[in-house]
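Field reference: sequence -> structure
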Amino acid sequence: MKELLGTGVALVTPFNEDKSVDFEGLARLVNYQIDNGINYLVVLGTTGEPATLTLEEKEQIKATIIKENNGRLPLVLGIGGNNTMAVAAEIKTTDLKAYSAILSVSPYYNKPTQEGIYQHFKVISEASTKPIILYNVPGRTGKNMEASTILRLANDFENIVAVKEAAGDIVQAMRIIQHKPADFMVISGDDMIALPMVLAGGSGVISVIGQGVPKDFSKMIQLGLQKNVVEANKLHFKIMDSIDYIFEECNPSGIKALLQKQAICSSNVRLPLVKATEKLEQKLINFIDNY
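Structure field:
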């Protein structure tokens, strides 16, 4: 899956003042990524607020991104959940022609055992005609997908090709990298440790901050893949404060405030999320002004 090497971004869903989807802002966002060296786009990941979108809106968002992208970058589609049979049914009934892979989150809320997580992804694997990226984000799901479970899935199912590893645990990531099959990709899901993961043998990142500072962030990851540590670190430290800021209150409120400052889209989010506070907005404004 060479098309998933480097920097992918989990696109936000821009909203108008009345909280309807801002499709013009979405088109601007897509072009901003393409024009600034991002390698692939993730559609309807967590950052896209899919939990508060209607089915009709999701279809319109997918259609807008596919049209605007026009085949220029690979696309990854988020299809996941905690009802295994419903996720499998959605995969089977979704038109996946435009997508290179599916990103599927480990089941949240139910808190299954490691065996339950394995059996969940076994069903997902059998339902999918496309490659699957596992998504481990215990801060959101309430349950860590352990390295042994990820490696078991990687070895047992040919179409499970990667993991987006967002446990924030560099040691766990290194254990997966150490023992993974040769062509299995370990993709950082945590912007702050994306570069260390790449330098340890990871394949890149699915990023949030990447869509706000795409040129430098994607360059940083490319330098990391080339093992140019000194230059990659310079960019990491240049960007670093903004990563703290965008996650300070909640995601995607922070990144949307940053994108608003850059006149790409508004900072509006849908409840139960709320917009970034004035204090956080000012930090982000200062960051961009000094950048």
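Note: The chain has a mean pLDDT of 98.
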